[in-house]
From TrEMBL:
Matches recorded under PANTHER family: THIAMINE THIAZOLE SYNTHASE
InterPro entries: FAD-bd, FAD/NAD-bd_sf
GO molecular function list: FAD binding
Biased composition, class Basic and acidic residues, residue ranges: 452-464
Protein name: Pyridine nucleotide-disulfide oxidoreductase
Domain FAD-binding: 5-342
Signal peptide (UniProt feature, chain positions): 1-19
Keyword annotations of the record: Signal
Biased composition (Acidic residues): 465-475
Keyword Signal attributed: yes
Region (Disordered): 437-475
């Protein structure tokens, strides 16, 4: 009798979980309720799919371990993704000032559209494993509180019960896992939502001639000014395009959806560099707006009881404010926990599912702390406010970031944690603490750290003017 695993959801988390399972069972069936595109195209089931995504170094390393016989880095680069050094290939204005760009190579990140990433992972997995995808919606878990034995599936052909040796829920933000567990007799799952009311607005532009090597550019939101946060990003993606994503929190920071307002918003950011860049670029799409941006966590790893052979990964476990770029990496790291456990023990080993669930919580904890410890400071955030611990953490982290604007040692610690190649404890390493207490050896930069050639590119693209009373560039 063949052994079957079922994965609920064919998004990034689901396909990576399927990759982890593919070497441990005879058959992996991925159940997906949406129609999946044949190429790198947007699909309805990804509310954030049209907005900026970063695949951090830690997440990419996890993906490299998962798909048998495929280097996902090479596969994504061949498909058109861009590889960018976080230390030298990015221009970033933080709440504490401009980060410097260093010649030393820091962690690499990949940038591309979410549609390309999902399609590339899905196609690599389908080409190199026996994983198959079926259309259908899971309505119920089968089994009991001690063990999950399969799922009930609803499809165009009707309902059926699909038996499985192992089940992974990777159905995303809208997962019904708490209800499913309750029906098995497992209740009392704690959940928490921290919602800054972030709104994303994104438009894609053709990369202007001569600007193909312009660095990734980010103006970060400042949560410490007792007013709504506002941010903007120019992200190089496949097809010689720029993805320009704006984000603002409730209470007046929300970006508009009309072209004139979109441009004005970029020019009104703490530095107008994003607006100056796109003022001379050709738009290729309309402006897409999304509001599914809250931090939401299900503390499944803390449940007193947990069924054997059932694991929850990806957004079904936790979602994060997308401004911090952690979600895809957390999904990949969770799938790697599953993969590594399966190399050490049998799929049917008692306690396996509990160990995987607790292991996956490790990367969730790090991303959650990073996102929530900043979001609680926005004035109209719902579901959380700064605690004593948040205030102490913020005092240290702000001093660390201020130091990192002029200290390579401090900056490298920030890069490692942001890239998820190290855990938060990296920020408390004695060398990092000493650097933070000493302060930056180099003075703060008064403007974006661009090369002479990049400044000339910016000037050539800038179509804003101080003569127009209605539009002020701010420099």
């Amino acid at each position: 009798m063949s052994r079957r695993a079922v994965v609920i959801g064919a998004g990034l988390a689901g396909m990576l979980a399927a990759a982890a399972l593919s070497t441990a069972v005879d058959e992996v069936v991925v159940l997906e309720r949406d129609e999946l595109p044949e190429g790198p195209e947007h699909r309805k089931g990804l509310p954030q799919g049209r907005h900026a995504h970063l695949l951090m170094a830690g997440g990419l390393a996890a993906m490299e371990d998962l798909v048998p016989g495929v280097s996902m880095r090479k596969h994504l680069l061949a498909a058109g993704a861009r590889e960018i050094s976080i230390s030298s290939g990015m221009v970033a204005l933080t709440p504490e000032g401009w980060f410097r760009r260093w010649r030393h190579e820091g962690p690499q990140m990949l940038t591309c559209s979410r549609a390309l990433l999902d399609w590339a992972v899905r196609s690599a997995l389908l080409d190199h494993t026996d994983v198959r995808i079926r259309k259908g919606q899971v309505t119920e878990l089968l089994g009991g509180a001690d063990r999950v034995t399969g799922v009930r599936v609803s499809s165009a052909e009707g309902e059926e019960e699909l038996a499985a040796e192992f089940v992974v829920d990777a159905s995303g933000r809208g997962s019904r896992v708490v209800n499913w567990l309750d029906s098995l007799g497992i209740s009392g799952i704690r959940e928490k939502t921290v919602d800054a009311g972030l709104v994303n607005a994104t438009r894609v532009y053709r990369t202007p001639e001569g600007a193909g090597d312009f660095p990734l550019t980010i103006i970060q939101a400042n949560p410490y000014q007792s007013r709504p946060g506002r941010s903007g990003m120019v992200l190089p993606i496949e097809g010689d395009r720029w993805m320009v994503s704006l984000a603002g929190t409730r209470g007046g920071g929300e970006p508009p959806s009309d072209p004139e307002g979109f441009l004005r918003y970029t020019l009104d950011l703490p530095d107008p560099i994003v607006g100056r860049l796109i003022s001379g670029a050709e738009p290729l799409t309309d402006i897409h707006v999304s509001r599914s941006t809250s931090n939401h966590r299900r503390y499944l790893e803390k449940s007193r009881r947990w069924p054997e052979r059932f694991v929850v990964l990806g957004d079904a476990l936790a979602t994060f404010n997308p401004a911090y770029g952690q979600g895809m990496s957390v999904a990949a790291l969770g799938a790697r926990v599953l993969s590594r456990e399966l190399t050490r023990t049998s799929l049917t080993e008692p306690g396996l599912a509990r160990r995987v669930q607790r292991g996956a919580a490790g990367s969730v904890n790090a991303a959650w702390t990073m996102a929530v410890s900043q979001d609680v400071w926005f004035p109209e955030t719902q579901g959380g406010s700064p605690t004593v611990a948040d205030r102490l953490l913020t005092r240290y982290s702000r001093r660390l970031i201020r130091t990192a604007t002029g200290s390579y040692r401090a900056a490298s610690a920030v890069w490692d944690v942001t890239s998820m190649t190290s855990g938060p404890e990296r920020l408390l390493h004695p060398t990092t603490v000493l650097a933070t207490l000493t302060g930056p050896p180099l003075p703060p930069s008064s403007s974006a750290p661009l090369t002479d050639q990049e400044r000339e590119t910016l000037r050539s693209l800038d179509r804003t003017t101080d003569e127009d009373d209605e539009v002020k560039t701010g420099g």
